[in-house]
């Protein structure tokens, strides 16, 4: 618990629930309690505090020649001393301290006689020596004197004297006496000599409930919780009736073991003894369920308490934080105040911890203001909580203000502020703070070292910290060692990380996972898998982080077999159902192109978060044939009540862009504006892509103008929209405005400009300006764009020379682009060379076979074309299937070639037949030469009629209102026949038709295409202006 919330580690004991031990710190010197009003001639001194009980009073009545001591452990307190003490508290303290109430007047004389020869003003050591002398003389030393001496040993923090007193007890043959044993056990517990306390207890005969309580407390403080529970069972078997103090200690032991069986058994015993509604026991139950139960258990135990005080409420608040329900703490605080419980420092620490846990800065500021208004003193515990809250909420400057205002600052304060600067990336300030801390005499602890290691941004700093730790003899435990490994990995030194890892004597699962993640980050995938094997050989089971790192390695390496093995291990270890692991599995299978496995993982996930849904949307967005299905996934996500984040919207808008779902895209845009995330960079770029691809370039300009802060990425997205429409004039205007805004273009900007360019002269000018005016060296992508420009302009030799001059030999994209230009210009020889180059680079490139077959067909070499097509079927066996999408009534319809599965197929084909009749009257002649294979002319015409974009357009014509624009998206380039047909349909039907294919956006209107038939005819008007 202390590790999760370090600000609780040093809370004063009076502000903590008695059932929660947040730290095992060294006992501080006992403070003197307030002195009560005493009768004349009386002096008040304090005896050591008993476990969980305030120090009791010893009244020394002064007489003429001697001083009598009346011990409140054995005498009933005066009535006036108890008027402000609750009955339950009083009964516990009187029972615990004495076991029975004795008559005060009868005991005074007995005590006076016993102490007649003992001067209370004597030194403790001298007093013990006097008693030893008396024992050696054969004189009897009374139990009261021995008890008194044990108490003085605790008062004066003198363990050696206490051991001497116990030797007196043993010498008197009283080591089995329960009352004396109780005193000695308490004393040894006070000095944290728990093993000795157990040895003393083992010699007692018939210990009473007070002694049992003392030994239970000793074992709890020793950390031997199972021994404490076993002692409780022995106590029950000895027929000693447990009281509230016993159960408080036993509940602490249960908290240490966190065993549900023990918890239920002890809870049943508490109910059996009628103590469930006791305030102290109930508070301890609440504290126990905080750690070992569910928050529902905590709430039930809390509600059963008859009286709820500040400590109990604070315990419940801490339970909320522990069970990740920190948002409920403010409401609990209001209920606490309504019930009249006043907040103390412990309450404020809980409230601040809740604000830290939820990173709710506003709530944290309100608590801070309330502390100041109420005039509560800000001690180191509250101060540490304030500093921690501001650091966790990302306000390190406010944390610094609180830090400077604190009267006392301990190592926790310094370490918290240091962490704030480290996490904010202000390492220099963190190092200055670290130096100042030592100058003020504060010794760094392991948390300080871990935090300063986080501040290291370069290897030199890390080396200095590492050397400092060695020089000052800092403990290199597993936590510090793991932090060192992480530092070396962040600073790019895998060898340094491995050195620390190898020489670390102890490693836990976090250490192994950190090293594995580092290997993955640096591409050492095989080493990461070897580390997993070594980790398991040493008996350490991987945790969630381990699996996440290794699954990432499988994704990066494309190793689906290792991924499946990890999937099996994660499932067997019970981690397969974790949301983060499920998300990583989806990503791994999607990256490895095993879409069905990804779907299965998603469907079997018991819980899904926004990342799960976003991963599935990403999967669909990266596979063009899954666009309509991806939109359905998004709709299901909304039905499940999952709120999308900007990344989710980015993928959704991409899906809508690919499926021409502009109406649904507009609805998403409106919702994005309402939620206030319209100006997120990812969303802006996705909106620009959506509108441009769906034919709404003007909508893209409007969305761009609404953007408040435009960066290079936003300008590039708008330029790419212009490129999709081959609108070079608009692209140049956008580029000019960008330069006027003061932004510097990058390589992507010029790639967009080249994509929009059609003329060779303009392309050459762009390449020159990119290099000479802006200092940007052309990349392979820029060269391929220039090859495309040259090829379509008919300068095939120049384009081929440019490709051959490229030092990169693996440029299948460039050769494929030139091959397509050869198809347009029917250059068989150049096409053959291009084809051979592509096949050498990628033997399975079906697109190269299809293009080369088309070149043969256009050249009248039908036999060669058919032979090549037969070779493709034999060697590859497949080619990318064409499909087209259209949106009608907020629903995306997907059509494939020759599709007859649509519910309105009959109407669609009837419409196409009617159009064919009209088209032929307009002079349309089907391009049957584009259809390869031995079939009749009629069959070839029928095949052309079944092209997916024609089916989508026909469906739009029969489904959308007359005159409404039709928008279609296709995953491949339109063939020449479909391009000609679409122009004629736009004139016959008097509609605008937008078709987005791999070339760009075609706008068909009144029989003309916006591309000017750029890809479908030979250009001769462009003059090459290249200096040779």
Automatic annotation (TrEMBL):
Domain DYW residue range list: 923-1014
Region named Disordered: 15-40
Family annotation (PROSITE patterns): PPR
One term of GO molecular function: RNA binding
Biased composition (Pro residues): 30-39
GO BP field: RNA modification; system development
Pfam family, one: PPR_2
Keywords: Repeat
PPR repeats: 208-242, 309-343, 410-444, 508-542, 609-644, 711-745
Name of the protein described by the UniProt record: DYW domain-containing protein
UniProt organism field: Adiantum capillus-veneris
């Amino acid at each position: 618990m202390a590790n999760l919330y370090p600000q609780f580690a040093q809370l004063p004991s009076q502000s903590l629930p008695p059932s929660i031990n947040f730290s095992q710190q060294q006992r501080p010197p006992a403070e003197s309690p307030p002195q009560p009003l005493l009768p004349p001639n009386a002096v008040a001194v304090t005896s050591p505090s008993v476990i969980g009980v305030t120090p009791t009073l010893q009244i020394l009545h002064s007489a003429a020649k001697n001083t009598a001591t009346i011990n409140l452990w054995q005498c009933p307190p005066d009535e006036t001393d108890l008027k402000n003490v609750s009955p339950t508290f009083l009964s516990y303290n009187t029972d615990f301290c004495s076991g029975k109430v004795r008559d005060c007047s009868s005991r005074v004389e007995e005590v006076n006689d016993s102490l007649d020869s003992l001067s209370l003003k004597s030194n403790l050591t001298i007093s013990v020596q006097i008693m030893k002398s008396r024992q050696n003389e054969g004189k009897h030393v009374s139990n009261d004197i021995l008890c008194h001496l044990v108490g003085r040993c605790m008062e004066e923090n003198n363990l050696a004297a206490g051991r001497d007193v116990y030797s007196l007890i043993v010498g008197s043959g009283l080591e089995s006496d329960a009352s004396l044993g109780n005193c000695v056990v308490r004393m040894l517990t006070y000095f944290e000599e728990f093993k000795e306390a157990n040895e003393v207890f083992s010699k007692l005969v018939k210990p009473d409930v007070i002694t049992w309580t003392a030994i239970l407390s000793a074992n709890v403080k020793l950390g031997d919780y199972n021994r404490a529970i076993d002692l409780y069972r022995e106590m029950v078997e000895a027929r000693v009736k447990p009281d509230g103090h016993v159960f408080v200690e036993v509940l602490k032991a249960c908290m240490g073991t966190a065993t549900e069986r023990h918890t239920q058994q002890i809870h049943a015993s508490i109910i059996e003894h009628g103590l469930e509604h006791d305030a102290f026991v109930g508070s301890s139950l609440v504290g126990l369920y905080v750690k070992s139960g569910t928050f529902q258990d905590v709430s039930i135990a809390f509600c059963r308490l008859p009286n709820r005080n500040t400590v109990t409420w604070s315990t419940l608040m801490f339970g909320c934080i522990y069970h990740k329900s920190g948002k409920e703490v403010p409401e609990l605080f209001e209920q606490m105040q309504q019930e009249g419980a006043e907040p103390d420092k412990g309450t404020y620490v809980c409230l601040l911890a809740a604000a830290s846990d939820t990173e709710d800065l506003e709530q944290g500021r309100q608590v801070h203001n309330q502390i100041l208004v109420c005039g509560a003193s800000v001690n180191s515990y509250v101060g540490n909580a304030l500093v921690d809250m501001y650091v966790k909420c990302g306000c390190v400057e406010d944390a610094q203000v609180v830090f400077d205002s604190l009267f006392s600052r301990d190592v926790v304060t310094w370490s918290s502020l240091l962490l704030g600067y480290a996490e904010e990336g202000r390492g220099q300030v963190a190092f200055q703070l670290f130096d100042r801390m030592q100058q003020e005499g504060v010794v760094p602890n392991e948390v300080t070292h871990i935090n300063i290691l986080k501040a290291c941004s370069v290897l030199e700093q890390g080396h200095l910290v590492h050397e400092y730790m060695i020089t000052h003899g800092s403990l290199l435990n597993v936590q510090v060692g793991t932090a060192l490994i992480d530092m070396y990995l962040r600073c790019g030194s895998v060898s340094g990380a491995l050195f620390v890892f190898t020489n670390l004597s102890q490693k836990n699962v976090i250490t192994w996972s950190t090293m594995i993640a580092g290997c993955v980050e640096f591409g050492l995938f095989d080493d990461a898998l070897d580390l997993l094997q070594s980790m398991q050989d040493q008996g350490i089971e991987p945790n969630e982080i381990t699996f996440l790192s290794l699954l990432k390695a499988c994704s990066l390496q494309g190793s689906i077999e290792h991924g499946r093995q990890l999937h099996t291990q994660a499932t067997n270890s019970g981690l397969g159902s974790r949301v983060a692991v499920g998300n990583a599995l989806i990503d791994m299978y999607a990256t490895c192109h095993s879409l069905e496995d990804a779907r299965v993982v998603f469907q079997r996930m018991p819980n899904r978060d926004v990342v799960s849904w976003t991963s599935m949307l990403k999967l669909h967005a990266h596979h063009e044939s899954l666009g309509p299905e991806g939109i359905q996934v998004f709709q299901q996500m909304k039905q499940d009540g999952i709120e999308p984040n900007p990344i989710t919207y980015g993928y959704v808008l991409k899906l809508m862009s690919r499926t021409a779902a502009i109406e649904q895209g507009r609805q998403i845009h409106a919702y994005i504006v309402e939620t206030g995330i319209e100006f997120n960079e990812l969303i802006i770029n996705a909106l620009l892509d959506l509108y441009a691809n769906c034919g709404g370039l003007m909508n893209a300009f409007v969305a761009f103008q609404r953007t408040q802060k435009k960066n290079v990425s936003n300008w590039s997205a708008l330029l790419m929209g212009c490129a999709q429409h081959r609108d070079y004039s608009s692209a140049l205007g956008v580029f000019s405005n960008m330069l006027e805004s003061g932004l510097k273009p990058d390589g992507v900007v010029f790639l967009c400009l080249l994509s929009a360019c059609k003329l060779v002269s303009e392309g050459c000018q762009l390449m020159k300006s990119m290099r000479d005016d802006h200092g940007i060296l052309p990349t392979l992508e820029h060269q391929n764009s220039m090859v495309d420009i040259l090829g379509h302009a008919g300068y095939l030799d120049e384009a081929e020379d440019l490709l051959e001059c490229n030092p990169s030999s693996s440029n299948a994209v460039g050769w494929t682009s030139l091959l397509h230009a050869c198809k347009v210009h029917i250059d068989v020889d150049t096409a053959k060379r291009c084809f051979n180059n592509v096949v050498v680079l990628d033997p399975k490139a079906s697109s190269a076979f299809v293009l080369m077959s088309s070149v043969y067909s256009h050249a009248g070499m039908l036999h060669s074309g058919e032979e090549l097509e037969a070779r493709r079927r034999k060697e590859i066996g497949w080619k990318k299937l064409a499909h087209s999408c259209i949106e009608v009534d907020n629903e995306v319809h997907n059509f494939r070639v020759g599709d007859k599965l649509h519910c309105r197929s009959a109407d669609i084909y009837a419409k196409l037949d009617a159009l064919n009749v009209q088209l032929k009257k307009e002079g349309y002649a089907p391009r049957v030469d584009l259809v390869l294979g031995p079939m009749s002319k009629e069959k070839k015409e029928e095949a052309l009629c079944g092209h997916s974009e024609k089916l989508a357009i026909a469906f739009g014509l029969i489904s959308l209102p007359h005159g409404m624009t039709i928008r279609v998206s296709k995953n491949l380039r339109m063939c020449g026949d479909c391009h000609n047909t679409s122009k004629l349909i736009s004139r016959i039907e008097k509609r605008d038709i937008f078709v987005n294919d791999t070339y760009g956006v075609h706008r068909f209107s009144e029989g003309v295409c916006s591309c000017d038939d750029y890809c479908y005819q030979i250009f001769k008007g462009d003059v090459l202006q290249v200096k040779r």
